[in-house]
Amino acid sequence: MKTKTVYMCDFCNKEYNRSIDAYKCEAEHLGLTIDEYKEYMNLLEEERRAFSAVSSVVNDEIRKRCDDTIKAVFDFQKEHNFTDNR
Ligand SMILES: [Zn+2]
Question: Assign residue 12 a region: left if phi > 0, alpha if psi is -120 to 50, beta otherwise?
Fold first, then answer.
């Protein structure tokens, strides 16, 4: 039996056979290049990690890390002139 993986764009739910194509679709919705979108995804991932750390232990360092990630994501959106309504 073969299994098939389908990648779906977060914004328009269009399906792709390759993850890179779904990435590209999402990047286009935000008006970003694929490299810019990858950079943005890394920021969101760091934001997510910082917030999961804060739920177990709250201290000033982690709180600062959270604030920094929010600012990094916000600055990136501002710099590239888009909003992400997901
Ligand atoms: Zn799309």
Answer: alpha
Is the entire prediction scored with pTM above 0.85? no
Query: How confident is the model over 13-39, as a mean pLDDT?
Result: 96
34 C-alpha to center of ligand 1: Å? 13
What is the structure's pLDDT at 52?
A: 82
* pLDDT at 58 > cutoff 80: no
| C-alpha span between 74 and 34 (Å, rounded) | 19
Asked if 48 and 59 count as a contact pair (C-beta separation under 8 A), the reply is no
Report CA(19)–ligand 1 centroid distance (Å).
12
CA atoms of 73 and 43, how far apart (whole Å): 6
Cα separations in angstroms, 6 against 3, 19, 20, 25: 10, 8, 11, 14
For residues 33 and 27, the answer to whether their CB atoms sit within 8 Å is: yes
